[in-house]
What we know:
Layout: H1 2-23, E1 32-35, E2 41-42, E3 61-64, E4 71-75, E5 86-90, E6 98-108, E7 116-120, E8 129-132, H2 137-140, E9 143-144, E10 146-147, E11 161-162, E12 165-176, E13 183-188, E14 200-209, H3 213-235
Parallel strand pairs: 8-9
Antiparallel strand pairs: 1-14, 2-5, 3-4, 4-14, 5-13, 6-12, 6-14, 7-8, 7-13, 10-12, 11-12
Amino acid sequence: MRMTNWISGCVRVAMALAAIAMCTPGARAALTYLDASKDNTGPLSAFTPGTNGQADDDLWTVRTGFSVGSTFIQSGDGNGEDSPELTTTITGLAANSPYRVYVHFWDGSGTAPDWNIRAGFTSSPGGNTLFANPTDAPDLGATPAVLASTLAYVNPPTPFTESDRTQFAGLVGIALSDGSGNLNVYIDDLPSQIGVNNRTWYDGVSYELVPEPTGAMLAMIGGAFGLVAARRRNRK
């Protein structure tokens, strides 16, 4: 009976350890960063032709000339600009597999700027999760993002700071890739009536494969039973 209880206790501990391991950032693999561009983000009709055109035309603009990963995609340079929803497609993933995804954006310093971004795994213009830096999030009713520099990457989206601007990352969540190894992330802005102090600077997305929870759990349970077997051998 005591041995049975001990085994049961080991199993419970192993299951708890597996759950902790899955939730611990240090247990995760490094993120792969994908810089957003017209090659992986569309539709093209959502963009102002060329680059650096900043008219208040309800279209996204590809901006260059900054050191923020060479280019980024902007909305909201004028008053009330409301650009269309974008789709960034991540390719080359393992088919039908779970991936954790972050959206990367920039925010200006000071109390006035409220730079933000919407992101999700389903098309929902104006309805997906709104992310902002932790200081601005309460004012906007947004989900706080984290400093992008605090995450681990295979290919860091440097620089993380530029002039008076800082890169943030919002956790979009976990979603399955399709049978072809593709995963869509839907991006949108928040229309502003206060000019450039409310805008969206979208830089890209990062992602990592999520380990199978059952695999980690079974490995730990197997280790627990290994301890039981060793204890029984030592008793003989």
